[in-house]
Design goal:
single chain, 156 residues, mainly alpha
């Protein structure tokens, strides 16, 4: 074997090894890019799951607050009725003023909420909340207004 063949073989082998090394690096970069894309997809999936969990927790908290507010309103109504029955009879003008307070409050509340309802545009999301408040206030006022007007059980 002469020196030219040896150098040619050595040079050819070195170049071929270098090309193999470069090819391995390119394939490694491609694999790393794919692994990163896969991780990125996993992260976005986890982010979507966490977002859905937060929204579910927020909705659950909102429902719990609504239940708490509603139960508090009903217990307040019961206490109001107890206080009303504990007052008893007084001067006629005091009874007349006291009898006019509830209708005035009821009409005032209904007027205020109706004005607020019609102030919003039909597509506005707040209009739905005001409509819910109108229904809640109307039912509360009617129950409060007529709740203590039930016929008293008389002794026979």
């Amino acid at each position: 074997m002469d020196i030219g063949t040896f150098l040619g073989t050595a040079l050819g082998g070195g170049l071929f090894g270098l090309l193999g090394n470069i090819g391995t690096k390119i394939i490694g970069l491609f694999e790393a890019k794919q692994a990163f894309a896969q991780k990125k997809e996993e992260w976005s999936h986890e982010e979507r799951l966490l977002d859905m969990q937060m929204k579910a927790r927020a909705a659950e908290t909102e429902q719990e607050l609504a239940v708490t507010a509603s139960s508090g309103s009903w217990s307040g109504l019961g206490e109001s009725l107890k206080a009303e029955t504990a007052i008893g009879a007084t001067y006629p003008w005091v009874n007349a003023v006291r009898a006019l307070v509830r209708p005035a409050l009821t009409l005032g509340l209904a007027s205020f909420l109706c004005a607020a309802f019609f102030a919003f545009t039909p597509g506005d999301i707040d209009r739905a909340y005001v409509a819910d408040s109108l229904v809640f206030a109307a039912v509360t006022a009617v129950v409060w207004w007529f709740g203590d007007r039930a016929p008293k059980k008389g002794t026979r």
